[in-house]
Amino acid sequence: MASFTGKPKNVVLEVKDLKVYYETPKGDVLAVNSIDFKLYEGEILGLVGESGCGKSTAAMGILQLVTPPGRIVSGEVRLLGQNLLEMTDLELRKRRWSELSLIPQGAMNSLNPTMRIKDQIYDVIRTHLGRTSKDKIEHRLAQLFEMVGLPMRVAQMYPHELSGGMKQRVCIAMAIALTPTVIIADEFTSALDVVVQRVVAQTMLKVKRLLGVSMIMIGHDMGLMAQMVDRIAVMYAGKIVEIAPLHSLFAQPGHPYSRLLIDAVPSLKERKPLRVTEGITHDPRNPPPGCIFQLRCPFVMDRCRIQSPPFYEISPDQQVACYLHQPTENGSLIDVTAAARNS
Ligand SMILES: Nc1ncnc2c1ncn2[C@@H]1O[C@H](COP(=O)(O)OP(=O)(O)OP(=O)(O)O)[C@@H](O)[C@H]1O
Ligand SMILES: [Mg+2]
After folding, report:
1. For the CA of 60, the nearest ligand
2. Which percentage of the chain shows pLDDT scores above 70?
3. For position 183, what pLDDT does the model report?
4. pTM here?
């Protein structure tokens, strides 16, 4: 399990009130509907949530890669203090790959089928470093392949000659080619079988250790997250509903949705029925007033239907947007885990 001792101090990336909507004939889809979080130096933050909750849109919003019908409605994305939303296209292009790089969802299928692997990586290096000697570029390629565990013969190959795991390592090599400060990896193991998933995940951890890079790891596999990340942000229908250190989230999930996600992870140790999350998500063009999870929440209360809950800090660095944690008169909090067990 990834360890993360001591509280990190330096914020490398800060996202504030980010909203990204998609225009449709029937109204805007509120794909990312005001999210806030910080990413600290050297940490891996997991961003989890079910399909369609807005994880990839959030990633595209952070990198300013949203294209029509999508648009960034508001927000700030501060990378080392500088707001990417206020930058020109040229300034942004300079920062992509070199300071902030993305392994997009399905990246391994978007490698150029007509180009050798080495040329695709050279392109990334040359575009940013300009005229660089062939020796220098080849040296860099060898370093990158060593880091991600690829044999040098792969450099001469075309994408169709590689296995899924190898292609994904090529994508990791591209993402780290210019030693960025932050990498966002979107579902980087989802199309791989479990054994290869593990190997690729280990590669990511090695890269993180060697480069000291900070990462946002997007996925919906809580089991994989548990082995990799330091903190987790749980997203539901365009909003972050809980953000917590990994061990706190698993030991005492604060949000009913986080609890349900964790209960959906099969366990080899104990025989337990898998819980399903009842109900369906609301129409993303028309979220209900109040809490975003109210239609599926086993603990919904009247006030959840009126006003969105604020974040309550229920243990150090564990913040939960749920009225179950509103301190009562005697200061006690409701235990969501125990309540879920009894429900
Ligand atoms: N081009 C588009 N036009 C309209 N709606 C879109 C478009 N792209 C995405 N959406 C909607 O935005 C919401 C968020 O989608 P997004 O792809 O960000 O989710 P996700 O959490 O990454 O899902 P997954 O786990 O399946 O990758 C969904 O409701 C989706 O239907
Ligand atoms: Mg996605």
Report:
1. 1
2. 90
3. 97
4. 0.91
Helix, strand, coil share of the chain (percent; to 5): 35, 20, 40
Task: Say yes or no to pLDDT of 321 above 80.
Answer: yes
The residue whose C-alpha atom lies closest to atom 26 belonging to ligand 1 is 51
Close Cβ partners of 318 (under 8 Å, ≥ 6 residues apart): 242, 243, 244, 245, 248, 249, 252, 254
Q: Is 160 exposed, middle or buried (0-12, 13-18, 19+ CB in 10 A)?
A: exposed
Distance 50 CA to ligand 2 centre (A): 9
Closest residue by Cα to atom 25, ligand 1, is: 51
Are 177 and 121 in contact by the 8 Å Cβ rule? The answer is yes
pLDDT at 340 over 60: no
- Ligand 1 center to 205 CA (angstroms): 28
Tokens of 204: 């990511």
Q: Are 120 and 154 in contact (CB under 8 A)?
A: no
How many other CB atoms are there within 10 angstroms of residue 98's CB atom?
17
Q: Are 117 and 155 in contact (CB under 8 A)?
A: yes
